[in-house]
Design brief:
Rna Polymerase Sigma Factor, Chain: A, 11 strands, four-stranded mixed beta sheet, seven-stranded parallel beta sheet, Rossmann fold, 16 helices, alpha/beta, 15% strand, binds nicotinamide-adenine-dinucleotide, binds magnesium ion
Length: 400
């Protein structure tokens, strides 16, 4: 248990995506520090029962369910559980709560572009933003970073690689000190396979990540290496780094979470067991270090650290993301939207694994990059890319 001075008030934390994998890790860390941290708002997509169960444990002031049709069920369930937690439903209610004094800290852990409005609301309201929702940065990174800068919102990246880079960059004086940033990738469950060996992989195999326990969407992204592609774009925005200073290194042990090389030849790495509670504890406690429940790293037990180059022939999603980052404008938004639709179709058994990069590539070529200076323009291209990809999937299904 942490010792907190009496004058320090408790951090009031909104956990968005509370019923998910990151949500569970965040609530685990919060519950270890009851004097310092409190979950004041919990938000989830559609699982009312799981949200009520979390409210029983964490007793937040507010609970929000995305689906407006579930409002009465949430309200009645909270009441029957004897809780004072207020029930809310819908995206607007969530955005308003995030911007209100119901919280000072926001864990943005909704999956996909669905997380953009609440992430933006937190940035605009100047909250401490623990950002796990990488898709919002890929879709609207410039706007999100500008909103955070204007309001002095403090963004602490939760994605393990970016949290590692955030920590390593503490020893930098100016942007010019950094020669390059290396994002590590586990390689996913299919590392070492050729393209031909990927044709028949199943959903079950794709979501069985060798090192990390995560939600289904990011698990598939890790299997295609799109996750690393999204992370390159994420790093570009978070740390204001050009593509030329970014690179990817496959590291199957997932113990080195990323590296920063400085102009003097020093390379700093952040290491630790693959457990998201470490990143979340950094975000929740910063600049102090607090217990996360994660054990230290016993390098004697692990023995070997290996590194290799990514195989972009077998995993073209990484190449597609590189080129979307280079094209800029609307390209990353198209990449993300097409990928979300393709991954969802793969998870539903509608398309094969190799159709994911094929669909992303065809949608990217159908919607060439254009300048993107407003949220409206980005949301419009996001919708177009989704609809094109859905149509392509429907075409596939007819031909099959
Ligand atoms: P998950 O599928 O386990 O959980 C997603 C959460 O989002 C659930 O609580 C769900 O109810 C909620 N949700 C979905 N749609 C919603 C909507 N429209 N409105 C409100 N809530 C909604 O996913 P996860 O693995 O926890 O990942 C969450 C985010 O964090 C993703 O962007 C992912 O890329 C990122 N991330 C996750 C990990 C990890 O280890 N799981 C690591 C790095 C980054
Ligand atoms: Mg990551």
């Amino acid at each position: 248990m942490s010792v907190v001075h009496p004058h320090e008030s408790r951090r009031q934390v909104a956990v968005l995506g509370a019923t998910g994998s990151i949500g569970a890790s965040a609530l685990d860390v919060i519950a270890r520090h009851r004097q310092r941290l409190r979950a004041s708002v919990l938000a989830a997509g559609s699982n009312v029962d799981a949200l009520i169960a979390l409210c029983r444990t964490h007793q937040p002031d507010h609970a929000v369910i995305a689906d407006p049709g579930s409002h009465a069920r949430l309200r009645d369930g909270l009441h029957q559980a004897g809780l004072k937690t207020q029930a809310h439903a819908g995206g607007h209610a969530l955005d308003a709560l995030v911007a209100s004094d119901a919280c000072d800290t926001v864990v943005a852990a909704i999956v996909g572009a669905a997380g953009l409005p609440s992430t933006l609301a937190a940035a605009r309201a100047g909250k401490r933003l623990l950002l796990a929702n990488k898709e919002s940065l890929v879709l609207a990174g410039d706007l999100l970073m500008a909103a955070a800068n204007r309001s002095n919102a403090e963004i602490i990246p939760i994605d393990s690689e970016h949290n590692a880079i955030f920590q390593c960059l503490r020893s930098r004086q100016t942007q010019g000190d950094v020669r390059r940033v290396l994002l590590t990738a586990s390689g996913g469950p299919f590392r070492g396979r050729s393209r031909a060996q990927l044709a028949d992989v199943t959903v079950q195999q794709a979501v069985a990540h060798p090192k990390w326990s995560m939600g289904p969407k990011i698990s598939v992204d890790s299997a295609t290496l799109m996750n690393k592609g999204l992370e390159l774009i994420e790093a570009h925005h978070l740390f204001d780094l050009p593509r030329a200073k970014l690179d990817v290194l496959v590291h199957p042990q997932s113990l080195v979470h990323s590296l920063v090389e400085f102009v003097d030849g020093s390379t700093l790495a952040q290491m630790g067991l693959p457990d998201m509670r470490t990143s979340l504890a950094v975000g929740l406690g910063w600049p102090q270090r607090i217990d996360s429940g994660v054990a230290g790293l016993d390098l004697l037990q692990h023995g070997r650290l290996e590194f290799e180059a990514p195989d972009t022939d077998a995993f073209p999603c990484l190449r597609l993301a590189w080129s979307a980052l280079e094209s800029g404008g609307t390209a990353p938004a198209v990449l993300n939207a097409a990928n979300e639709i393709a991954v969802s179709a793969f998870l539903q058994g509608k398309i094969g694994f190799l159709s994911i990069p094929a669909l992303v590539e065809s949608t990217l070529s159908a919607l060439p990059a254009a300048p993107a200076d407003s949220l409206e323009a980005l949301l419009e291209v996001d919708a177009q890319a989704r609809s094109l990809t859905r149509n392509a999937i429907a075409g596939h299904a007819i031909r099959a």
